[in-house]
Design brief:
Length: 210
């Protein structure tokens, strides 16, 4: 595979497992300099070692930060002031009855799933426009369009990601603001968070965050 990305730079959030790790691995194999973000230094080092094993000589870096906060986004931006490719993969989900979703639950869901990507895009996207090249990819799911009754706040966050990506796409000039849909991601998230398969099958939806 040749994606013609050799020499580019990429920032991948939620990169220590699952789809984020797979994307980071693929980009590294394509000759992209990849920065991985996450909250756990040990998991970041393990992810970097795994990628290096499959892509010897890969240019990799890590940033330990909680992107659910403005301070976390600022730390990532300080460590990597610019990037050609932004993959906003960070996210979590949970099942909860609508009447039980508190204001704090709503705000946490939006901070993690939406604002984590918005804050980074707000910084990197204008720079992509200036050089007329870049990629911003939000990882969203079909839940944004077909929201289960016990995951309303999660569905809202996924719809918001789609709205942001569409808005950015309207602003592009050779830069692409894309939303890449993830189907049936619930079991993937559960598996990488160590949730046993029977529990995932029983609940249908689980709570997990990289």
């Amino acid at each position: 595979m040749d994606l013609q990305l050799a020499g580019k730079t990429a920032l991948v959030t939620g990169a220590t497992a699952g789809i984020g790790l797979a994307i980071a691995r693929t980009l590294a194999r394509e000759g992209v300099s990849v920065t991985l973000t996450g909250r756990d230094p040990g998991k970041l080092q393990a992810a970097m070692a795994e990628i290096s094993a499959g892509a010897p000589g890969a240019q990799l870096a890590t940033v330990v930060a909680d992107l659910a906060s403005a301070d976390g986004a600022a730390a990532v931006i300080a460590a990597q002031p610019d990037t050609d490719i932004l993959i906003t993969n960070l996210g979590y989900y949970e099942a909860k009855a609508f009447a039980d979703i508190s204001d704090d639950d709503w705000m946490r869901m939006l901070e993690v799933n939406v604002l984590s990507g918005v804050r980074l895009s707000r910084h990197y996207f204008p720079r992509m426009l200036e050089r007329n090249w870049g990629r911003v990819i939000f990882m969203f799911s079909e839940v944004g369009a077909f929201t289960p009754p016990d995951m309303v706040h999660y569905g809202v966050s996924k719809s918001a990601q789609l709205a942001v990506s569409r808005g950015l796409a309207e602003l592009t000039r050779g830069t692409r603001g894309d939303g890449q849909q993830r189907a049936a991601i619930g079991h993937t998230l559960g598996r990488h968070c160590g949730i046993p398969a029977p529990d995932r099958a029983a609940t249908g939806h689980d709570r997990c965050r990289d």
